[in-house]
Amino acid sequence: MTVVDNPVFGIIAGSWSHLAVFGWQAAAGSTLNVSGSGFAGIGIAGSSLTLFSNTVVTASGNGVGLLLAAGGSAGAPLGQATFILHNNGVGMNAFAASSTYLVAGLNVHDNGIGVLADDASLYLEAAEGLPASIAANGIDVQLSFAARSTIENVSVATPLVCEPTVLSRGTTKCP
C-alpha cells in the first residue's frame, strides 16, 4: 500500500482499532509506504499496529514518521518486519502511555530526531539477520519524562539523550 501527500495524516488508527498484517502466505512481502504527510505518516492512538510477517514499513518526508499516542502500540514480535523511517521531522514519536515491542529490522536515519519517547515504553530489538541502526539524525534517541526503554543489539550512533526520570536497560542505555 502506498499513501502519499496527505495534509495531516497518511494513515490513522484510533478508537480501539487494530491495523495488522498477519503471517498468511498472501501477506508475505507486504509493504506499507507513507510519505509527504503534513503531521504524521502513520498515527496510532488508543489502537495498535501489529506485524506478523516480513512486512516493510517505510515512512519518509512526514512531520512524524510513526506516531504512537494515548495508549497506542506498535508490535512486530516475530523478528520478520522492517521499519524504515527517514527524512521526517521525527522518525518515531511514542508518548502518552504508548508502547512498542519491535523485534525487527530498523533503519532510522536523516530525521530531526530518530526516536523520541516521552511517558512511553520502548522495546527495540534487532531481529536476527536484519540490520538495525539508528544513525545520522539530528538526535538519534531522546528519552523524556518517565520513559522506559530496552534497546537490544540495535546500533545507535550517538549516546542516548535522557532526562533523570528515564528507566533504561539493554545493550544501549542512558549514560
Indicate the topology:
Layout: E1 2-4, E2 9-13, E3 18-21, E4 31-35, E5 40-45, E6 48-51, E7 56-60, E8 64-69, E9 73-76, E10 82-86, E11 90-95, E12 99-109, E13 113-118, E14 121-126, E15 132-135, E16 139-143, E17 148-152, E18 155-156, E19 161-162, E20 167-170
Parallel strand pairs: 1-4, 2-5, 3-6, 4-7, 5-8, 6-9, 7-10, 8-11, 9-12, 10-12, 11-13, 12-14, 12-15, 13-16, 14-17, 15-18, 16-19, 17-20
Index terms:
single chain, 175 residues, mainly beta, 13-stranded parallel sheet, seven-stranded parallel sheet, globular
Kindly describe this structure.
The protein has 175 residues and is mostly beta strands. The chain has one domain. Helix content is 0%, strand content 56%. The protein is built from no helices and 20 strands. The chain has strands at 2-4, 9-13, 18-21, 31-35, 40-45, 48-51, 56-60, 64-69, 73-76, 82-86, 90-95, 99-109, 113-118, 121-126, 132-135, 139-143, 148-152, 155-156, 161-162, 167-170. The strands form two sheets. Strands 1, 3, 4, 6, 7, 9, 10, 12, 14, 15, 17, 18 and 20 form a 13-stranded parallel β-sheet that branches. It has a seven-stranded parallel β-sheet with strand order 2-5-8-11-13-16-19, with no helix packed on it.
